[in-house]
Amino acid sequence: MEILIQQLFNGLTIGSVYSLVALGLTLVYGILHIPNFAHGALYMMGGYVTLTMMTSQGMHYWLAIAVSAIVVGLLAVLMERLVFHPLRHAPPIHDKIAAIGILLFLEALAQFIWGAEYQTMASPYGQIINVAGVTLTMQRLLIIIAAVVVMIFLYVFLKKTYTGATIIAMSQNREGANLVGINTNRVAMLTFLISGALAAIACSIAAPINLVFPGMGHLVITKAFVIIILGGMGSIPGAIAGGYILGFTESLGATYISNDYKDLIAFVLLVLILTIRPKGLFARGGH
Amino acid sequence: MAAFFKQRNVIAALIIFAIIFPFITNNTYFVHVMTLSFIWMIGVYGLNLLAGYTGYLSLAHAGFFAIGAYALSLLTTKAQLNYWVAFILALIITSVLGLVIGLISLRTKEHFFAIYTLCVGYIIYLVIDKWDSLTGGIRGLIGIPGPGNIGPIEFTTPVSNYYLVLFFLLLTVLVMYRIVHSLTGRTFIAIRNSEDLAQTIGISTMKNKLLVFVISTFFAGLSGALYASFIRFIGPDIGYISITFDLLTYLLVGGIGTLSGPIVGTVLIVWVSQQLQFLQDYRMLIFGPVLTLLVIFYPRGIVGGIAESLMKRKQKKQAREEQLVMAKKSVAATAASNENR
Amino acid sequence: MFLETKNLTKKFGGLVAVNDVDFSIEKGKINAIIGPNGAGKSTFFNLISGFHPPSSGQVIFKGKDITRLPSNKIAELGVARTFQTTNLFDQATVLDNVIVGHRLRTKSNLVDAIFRTKRLKAEEKQCREKAIEVLEFVGLTSAAYKLAGSMSQEEKKRVAFALALATDPEIVFLDEPAAGVNPDETEGLAALMEKMVSAGITVCLIEHKMQMIMKLADKIMVLNYGEKIAEGTPKEIRNNEMVIKAYLGGSAIA
């Protein structure tokens, strides 16, 4: 029983990170209909920027995360302007390849600046606490709380502000949004900003319990794709729910099936879903 | 048609160069590098037929490369089979797995296909990495035999290996050339342009996509099998996504959807990388942006870019000639009407 | 009956795009389907050509039920169609783009391709000749070696016709064949449709250009909100109260 609770808690932790990454990915997909393969690189950059801010600038953890969110957010905007915007009318295969090019570049860049070795991020919240008989580190608790806070912020922004509403409008109907005078360029940039910031935050809160290295984005991004297919491409609640579902499945799978193969769970899940429903779980019928 | 002959000439020149290459250079290392780039080219050709000619970007290509390599290695080292028997079996195994995965994955389209194959690639990689008892896990497999003798011909020296791989490469190019220039190739291109349109002109798109997927995995497997017996040891990293990205970079730089693109791109990047040895880990600092810029400005790579400018020049010339003829005609007409007056 | 639909219905979720449509197409005539935007015309085409399976009802072609056949099989039976936009391979010539249109009448496979068999060569010749023939038919002989990417809008429309004709069809469904071309070119395309009919090919088209339809069509069906509200000759349609009310908002057809 204790193991189960522990694992559920772990699932919640991993799920929080997955959800944040998947949220950024699904927002971009909703607006521009591109699967941003470079999203994992943004995640990785987020980790390094936070780490650098903490070690070389001596910044406080939370401040470093804020800086990282802004830096990576701007990086994402740059990406949209320089690459995805010029390719908006190109065949669908092009933006995928372009995104892969960015991914390869950013990884090489990270390795160039920070080296290939695995680095640890020391969090000020290493304390071990005991809640209801379950031992956990403060950091894990923080991941869960931070993720929820970010999600609430995002929700309020999307639902309660005009700018947020434009994003929703555009993801539902691009042409319509254009017709009612929404500046689609601005919305696209804004969406990339948010998606980059989300990736940076996700990585920064997860890094203290993981390691920071150039290839750290690979598995996360691929799983984020699984999540948004699980939850419906472009769906925000779907990304959140999917993230937690995958988090729980993995942590339970690691305990009760095999720790070695836990990373396989996500991919097998996706292969199964797409085998049964080639257009994803929540494809809209017809045309 | 002129551009087509040009492309053909380029290929002919390259073949001659490839045949005399070991005699020009006495550097065994260069022969080694060239052999390796030929092996990559075979894999790139497979990817090209699928992504370039049919429009389906598979990110599982390195996975099939690894399946070919591991199948050959396991069949020769663990099952102790004759090299060429193992070689043929490895190709069959890869193609059959390609058929099964193709049957499922090809029901998805565009983004879903890319993501699906990305996941399939990861599954193949992870299975190889974790299935310790069969694949040796992270330690990989060692002691893979080189190509077995064919009658009196031995493949023990680097140069003989070079020619063996060159033989398979030329065979690959020939097969690709013939496919692309046949009705079958036209069918693939029609699917790339518009799957709906292809279907309405009576093409069974699923059947053809499956065919091209299997061909593509076959060549990935061939490339992998040759790699294993050339390098003699393999690890799970040959199935990792970064290998797919490498192959994709070769293809994009050379020219996706062109026949000589895979050769041009692979040779260029492999040699540039060799020259920039010190950059090895950071080569993507250059090739990453190159990939992105190419897709934006020259989506059909070096070869496609050249072919297009030749085509345009020819069209302009034609247009000029037409104008000239028209001008002459109108001059003649004016003259005639003048006379009539 | 040449081609007919019986109680053809298509629902997308809760939306009924095509509702219980009975329609028969007369052989050797120009049949037209008109109706306001969103009336279900394109969906109707998609049901006949096998792009979407209908929710209920039947499509019968020459006495054979083709309702559940995939679109490539329907094409093999001699039912061709065009789209509003035709995606071509812009870097290849027009001729190269049209050659594949006859692919469905050939049998050569991968083995033929790799060994360049006699069969492949013969069939390639056959396809090429067919392409030249249909390009001549649609009046594009002089443009055959132009790059597809450099064609005008009207030429693209003609290539779409050529591709459909290359499949050796008995009936051709044309989805807004004259959209986006000027009045003179529209005349030309109308003449081409008449030429197709005189060559023994039945034509069925969706069109918005009323004047053209009224002059061209032998038989018209009017769809509104997925339902057939009228069927008949241009004259009958012009005087049909229902049509005038529902479709034209009261004013008579010019």
UniProtKB/TrEMBL annotation, chain A:
It holds the Pfam family BPD_transp_2. Belongs to the binding-protein-dependent transport system permease family. LivHM subfamily. GO terms for molecular function: transmembrane transporter activity. The lineage of its organism: Bacteria, Bacillati, Bacillota, Bacilli, Bacillales. Keywords: Amino-acid transport, Cell membrane, Membrane, Transmembrane, Transmembrane helix, Transport. Its main location: membrane. It is a multi-pass membrane protein. GO terms for biological process: amino acid transport. This is ABC transporter permease. GO terms for cellular component: plasma membrane. The chain crosses the membrane at residues 12-31, 61-84, 96-116, 128-158, 187-213, 225-244. It is found in: Cell membrane.
From TrEMBL, chain B:
It is a multi-pass membrane protein. Keywords: Cell membrane, Membrane, Transmembrane, Transmembrane helix. It comes from the Bacteria. It is found in: Cell membrane. Pfam families: BPD_transp_2. The chain crosses the membrane at residues 7-24, 81-104, 111-128, 162-180, 210-235, 247-272, 284-307. This is ABC transporter permease. It comes from Mesobacillus campisalis.
TrEMBL record, chain C:
GO terms for biological process: D-alanine transmembrane transport; L-alanine transport; L-isoleucine import across plasma membrane; L-valine import across plasma membrane. Keywords: ATP-binding, Nucleotide-binding, Transport. Pfam families: ABC_tran, BCA_ABC_TP_C. InterPro entries: AAA+_ATPase, ABC_AA/LPS_Transport, ABC_transporter-like_ATP-bd, BCA_ABC_TP_C, P-loop_NTPase. The keyword Transport applies. PROSITE patterns: ABC_TRANSPORTER_2. GO terms for molecular function: ATP binding; ATP hydrolysis activity; L-isoleucine transmembrane transporter activity; L-phenylalanine transmembrane transporter activity; L-valine transmembrane transporter activity. GO terms for cellular component: plasma membrane. Residues 3-250 form the ABC transporter domain. This is Leucine/isoleucine/valine transporter ATP-binding subunit.
